[in-house]
Fold:
Amino acid sequence: MPLSPVLRQQATYPFVRLGRRVAERRARGLEVIDLGMGDPREPTDARIIEALRDGVRERMGYPASVGLSELREAIAAWCGRRFGIAVDPERHVIPTLGSKEAIFSFAQVVLDHEAGRDSVVVTEPGYPVPERGALFAGATVLELPLREEHGWLPELESVSAFDWRRAALVWVNYPNNPTGAVAPLELFARLAALAREHGFVLASDEAYTELWAEEPPPSALQLDDWTNVVVFNTLSKRSSMTGFRSGFVAGDPALIDALRAFRPNVGTAPQEFVQRASVVAWSDEEHVERARATYVRKRRLLGDALARCGLRVAGGTATMYVWVAVPEGETSESFAERLLGLGVVVAPGSFLGPSGEGYVRFALVPTEEECARAAELLVQGL
Structure:
């Protein structure tokens, strides 16, 4: 049977392997507190669910790829409130089916093999979808390591002028999964200047901008010039709506126009009833503030336990993740396996890229009670 060579070469998604190990332990009747996957379990606000139900009609046609005008307006208004910027809902925004599908497919929009724009730059450790989307689009992928000694920010000086000129697309993700680091606006400005100088697109995955413990993180949308710049955001983390699949892309109107031309071909517009629920979600901050406060409490609870165990938090305080250095003499996987033996599931940093070796990621997604139990298991077992 003919199959894509990229698909044939894909290893099992590492978190699928992790899920199998968790299932095996549960099948034996053993306790498991799962802090491995970043799937929020906070309840979706009742007003959002009500809007979803109210949006269902007896007959519903295909959703338009440009999205409802009410949703684009709600997104633009949220960007204005949150980042102090002016966003035109007609020129600068397009809704998406969450952010994952849009991130995966975006390389197809900007790669130009004939012009020598055949590579995509991604940071690692990190979310694997930008790399996998680039590979399926036929791109060469250049990995840009993130290291603790540089504050988990990319060393832009390590990229040659030749590689910048070959790049069609450069991805960054701040606040960062898995490290929790926040990038200063100056990093976005430097990358945007390089994008205009060398002709590539800067794509900023900002799924975690609303999950912070200290100061609100900046956005690439706060740059004065959006030429060659687009931002991806989602309700999955902000509003605990992973199952709804609703997000947006905003930025350079030329790139938004390109997405308007591309997206009808793949049929990934959010369902209308999801879009109507999303209007409510983007228009309200109360539920976000509640969720953020919950994550702060979980972070403090787990951080206290880690300190008692002599483990070092090596990352920042944004996102829903805690990035922890493994004890000396252990690997990411061996330490994760040891914690699984205690009943606590974490993600080995090596699952997220070579530079993740030496760390594990705790996802603060269980309930506060479950996080308290995980903290108890850690203190008792380590």
User: Anything to note?
Assistant: Residues 286-308 form the longest helix (23 residues).
